[in-house]
Amino acid sequence: MSTATVLDLGSGRAELRLPSGPLPALADLRELLAAAFAAPDLQCVAAYVAVDAWEVRHLLHAAGFSGDGMLRDWLPGPDGGRSDAWVGTLLREDPLEPPHPWLVVPELEAGGLVLRPWRESDVPRIVEGCADAETQRWLGQVPSPYTPDAARTWLRQTAERLAAGTGMNWAVVDPADEQGPDRALGSVGWFDLTEGVDCEVGYWTHPDARGRRVAARATEAVVAYAFDTLGVRRVRAFAAVGNTASRRVIEACGFELYGVERLGAWTRAGHVDMALYDRMAASEPDATS
């Protein structure tokens, strides 16, 4: 059976080579790395794995490797092609422990709705929601035309935020939905976290969800999660000034307008003014008092 090895590259560098078969146990990998760093001149061990090899990346993360970027077309891929590689490094002084939390999306209840992790099987619903005229109108960063490949890229980006500990997205479903209790009605999530201080929430909805308070119920659940689990003191939410529907959702969740940023929102028609909202934790004093 092949095993993990540390290949000495000289000049204080080495590369971790993992087996193509079963992965080593975390304890065995840590023992291997500790033995490698027993050599006095070794300063850095690097690892290159396919960007979507999540099980391997999770193992390396647990062993202390930091994600340092991506190399395009670096590894041999299927069918004779090439695939992008995630690059991780472990320095001599780094502990053999995770450098930060690898987030796991919990299931949440949201006023009769359920927030669950996104899945590959949700791609058709993502395409329908993000190709919708209203979504395209107000979210200028959304690709146009919106294709299944764009949806898969977005799913990879949400997974990357979990791995980096920088954000979390949920699919919103309605268990009472006669068209399907598990079909995605939209997305809601938090990001841009300043630990212990604040974060931003954002959402989009499928046309099937509109007029059902789906966005408001889902956003309220994520705001509660931000206060109770993330421990932030303030949650931010933004919308284009002219996006009346989105602003109604934000205001229904108890956010207060604190300003307008000139040309701060990017829409399909170009940059427009953006309404700035926030909501403080219940124990925080009113910032306007």
What does this structure look like?
With 289 residues, the protein is α+β, with helices and mostly antiparallel strands. The protein has 2 domains: 5-91, Aminopeptidase (3-Layer(aba) Sandwich); 108-280, Gcn5-related N-acetyltransferase (GNAT) (Aminopeptidase, 3-Layer(aba) Sandwich). Helix content is 27%, strand content 35%. The protein contains 7 helices and 13 strands. It has helices spanning 26-36, 54-62, 123-131, 133-138, 148-164, 214-230, 244-252; strands at residues 5-10, 13-17, 44-50, 66-76, 82-91, 108-110, 113-116, 167-173, 186-194, 198-205, 234-240, 256-267, 270-280. It has an 8-stranded mixed beta sheet with strand order 6-7-8-9-10-11-13-12, sandwiched between helices. Strands 1-2-3-5-4 form a 5-stranded mixed beta sheet, with helices on one face. A hairpin with a 5-residue loop joins strand 4 (66-76) and strand 5 (82-91). Helix 3 (123-131) packs across helix 5 (148-164). The mean pLDDT is 95. It holds the Pfam family Acetyltransf_3. It comes from Nocardioides oceani. This is GNAT family N-acetyltransferase.
List the helices and strands and how they pair.
Layout: E1 5-10, E2 13-17, H1 26-36, E3 44-50, H2 54-62, E4 66-76, E5 82-91, E6 108-110, E7 113-116, H3 123-131, H4 133-138, H5 148-164, E8 167-173, E9 186-194, E10 198-205, H6 214-230, E11 234-240, H7 244-252, E12 256-267, E13 270-280
Parallel strand pairs: 2-3, 10-11
Antiparallel strand pairs: 1-2, 3-5, 4-5, 6-7, 7-8, 8-9, 9-10, 11-13, 12-13
Helix pairs in contact: 3-5
